[in-house]
């Protein structure tokens, strides 16, 4: 089953505003997955069973799995010219897996993560979570040739992952087609120090030119615990009558039949309530032994804020059932 992606890249409206030397060119690199089954069937089966979706049959780089068995594709080719610098706009659109990304013989200069510029740093392997974006600079300063590019899974919890490594090729423009490819080895799936090396290197720009202007007066202090729970599901036979669910402050979001924005704008009652808790309803050791009751509350709630409020939001992973690696984003309804 082929997967289709729709992407948009937003640029600074007043020209060159990078906090690093402007690259000569940029390339969008989409890290994804491919299933032999229909993806709708994969999701429906997961909802029916109460368990996680079946793992994919291959990882992909710009929709190409690369050199794997029973696949005629040779993978995506990234053409470069010696002496040029390229910005790779990496996007992880995988369903549920963090991915390592590296290029043989190259150091990657990380300049932006999730639409936020960071203090540039060099590293040979990055880690990117589902739904996340990372922009890296690649300098084509190696000797002419072909260099292997790999995207491989990172497994930081006891949940099955797709073991296939996606491959592509960085190809210098004056290289003969029959030139052998310089190889690289993907990291082991559970090598936490490599993942930590990347995340621990992230720093705000916070310079004289790009100061971090943090508000000193806070209107709302919100503390959100994030994790998994287990709710009853009589039809989930594979889950033995239960289903794993996600929760924030022990609330599992129930998708309404009317859009939240529509209900908000037209004052339609009965769609959502504005009493989402700003703090966990029950305090416990969030990184220690989980509570005995793992059931969550099913609600459609929002937290109401006055326009132009200053909010401090603290996110706390709980590690209930298993640590999760999804980025968290916020959605605002403005009228």
Automatic annotation (TrEMBL):
Report the superkingdom from the record. Answer: Eukaryota
What this protein needs as a cofactor is: Cu cation
Question: Which range is the signal sequence, renumbered to this chain?
Answer: none
Entries under InterPro entries matching the protein: Cu-oxidase_2nd, Cu-oxidase_fam, Cupredoxin, CuRO_2_LCC
Broad class of where this protein is predominantly found: secreted
Q: Where in the cell is it found?
A: Secreted, Extracellular space, Apoplast
GO CC annotations on file:
apoplast
Instruction: State which Enzyme Commission number(s) the record gives.
Output: 1.10.3.2
In this record, what's one Pfam family?
Cu-oxidase
Which keywords does this chain's UniProt record carry?
A: Apoplast, Copper, Lignin degradation, Metal-binding, Oxidoreductase, Repeat, Secreted
Q: Does the keyword Repeat apply?
A: yes
Q: What class of enzyme is it?
A: oxidoreductase
Catalytic function, reaction form: 4 hydroquinone + O2 = 4 benzosemiquinone + 2 H2O
Query: Which molecular-function annotation in GO is an example for this chain?
Result: metal ion binding
Q: Give every Plastocyanin-like domain span.
A: 26-173
Which biological process terms from the Gene Ontology are attached to this UniProt entry?
lignin catabolic process
Q: Which family does it belong to?
A: Belongs to the multicopper oxidase family.
* PANTHER family according to UniProt: LACCASE-4, MULTI-COPPER OXIDASE
Protein name as it appears in the record: laccase
- Taxonomic source organism: Hibiscus syriacus (Rose of Sharon)
